[in-house]
Amino acid sequence: MGTCYKASPKSKGYIMQESLYNLVFERTLLCSIIFEPRLFEELNPSIKATDFYLPAHQDIYTIMGELTKDDKPIDEEFIKKELVKRKAFDEQVMMEIILGNPVANINVYCQEVKEKSRQRELLSITTDIKKSVIEDMDSSDETIAALHKKLKLIEEDEFTGIKIRTSKEASLEYENMPVMPKYETGVEVVDQKFNGGLELSQLMMIGGEKGAGKTSFSLQIVTNVSNGFKCSFLSFEMPWYKIQNKLYKHRLSDIQSENITIVDDGRDIFEIERTIRKLARAGTKFFVIDSLMKIRNKYYQGKRHEQVSDITDRLSKLCMDLNIIIMLVVQVNNEDQKSGRMAVKGSGDADYDADIMFFIQKDKDNERKRIFHCEKNRQNGNEFKEEMYLNPKKVMFQKHAPSVFEMEYTSTLNDTPKIEMAVL
């Protein structure tokens, strides 16, 4: 049976073989994104608006990208509003998409849409060849070079989402990379062991028993990094004003105050991803999330340990994709707290996603003393165990025990200073 030819709706009047497009796959892809908006972030930029055959589908995908950029939800109403504004709304097309069947694994649909797009591009090139050689009688080197360039672009434009480099290409790219800064934490032990600070593209996990000082440790690093870089503290354990109250004790400068953002809303992993991407686009490179146990995945129906593994896997990928640092506060299993080991509570696999793992252990004889463990270190392989002390006045970690003078003005770890210490 021969191939059927017909005009597609809104196909701008030209005839196209049915084998060069699949509207059902295009609708399924768009429907899946509307049902689960985080898919757009995973597809872009591997899938472009021009990969869709139907112009109406191209318009919808373009608007999805604009909504994401403006930090607006990808849903039917927002898409319709933008289409109406541009006088491009087609109710029938939108209804067909909404009534489609969303799928969780859309890779096969993406590959099909991309392959059809590549075939149409090849057909377009054959038309260009015919026009240049037969009609225009032009076979110049310039024309051949232009056609060769188009073919190369088509060859490279596959749906893989994977950047493949030869060792030679990687070497050249590495040599031309700008020098990446290390982020000093302000914690003397950490900065010494990590040769000056933390590098980008790493997921850190900070664990410890209740009251060990995980949040204080995180805030200490944030305040120090904020001296020169933008930071964000995503607090799901306590509201923003409690975090701000803790920051007061660090006596922030104007620059530090401007460089620190506090977020206490949006606990779903996809909302967190959207927030981090938005802040990263604005220049934020350093993030703290407090804590893992408060994060949920509304699309994941599996057991909690599987959900936790999925969450940490996403955060690890986010660090690499955006070239950022994420410090994730985690809870530790009770049996591991006693032995001084660190295993993330709720998942046996989440540990593998971490590049760096810190564990803060309380000393039973000294309420201010802590044993600081580094149990995993992909940055330079330097694992260690050191004593540190929590300064009760500044609520920060230091290498030496608090002095008698500090002790005199502070009653317990949880109290603020009884009187303001005079500035000498």
Can you give me a brief rundown of this structure?
By secondary structure, the chain is of the alpha/beta class.
Protein model, in words:
The model is unreliable at 1-15 and 409-424 (pLDDT under 50). The chain has helices spanning 23-35, 38-43, 55-69, 76-85, 91-98, 107-135, 141-156, 167-175, 188-193, 214-225, 240-248, 254-259, 269-281, 304-322, 334-339, 404-408, and strands at residues 5-7, 15-17, 202-208, 231-235, 260-263, 286-290, 325-329, 356-362, 369-377, 384-391, 396-398. Helix 1 crosses helix 6 and helix 3 crosses helix 4 (76-85). The protein is elongated, with a radius of gyration of 27 Å. The chain is built from 16 helices and eleven strands. The protein folds into two domains: 5-156, DNAb Helicase, Chain A (Orthogonal Bundle), CATH 1.10.860.10; 188-408, P-loop containing nucleotide triphosphate hydrolases (Rossmann fold, 3-Layer(aba) Sandwich). The longest helix is centred in the first third of the chain and has 29 residues, at 107-135. With 424 residues, the protein is an alpha/beta fold. The strands form two sheets. The protein has a nine-stranded mixed β-sheet. It has a two-stranded antiparallel ribbon with strand order 1-2.
Give the helix tally: 16
Q: Uncertain regions: pLDDT < 50 for 5+ in a row?
A: 1-15, 409-424
Q: How many discrete domains?
A: 2
**Assigned CATH class of the largest domain:** Alpha Beta
Shape, per Cα inertia axes: elongated
Any idea of the CATH topology of the largest domain?
Rossmann fold
CATH architecture of the largest domain: 3-Layer(aba) Sandwich
DSSP summary, beta strand count: 11
The percentage of residues in β strands lies in 5-15%
Can you list the strand order of the major beta sheet?
A: 5-4-6-7-3-8-9-10-11
Terminal CA distance: 94 Å
Helix/strand-derived category reads alpha/beta
Secondary-structure element order, as H and E? EEHHHHHHHHHEHEHHEHEHEHEEEEH
Largest sheet: 9 strands, mixed
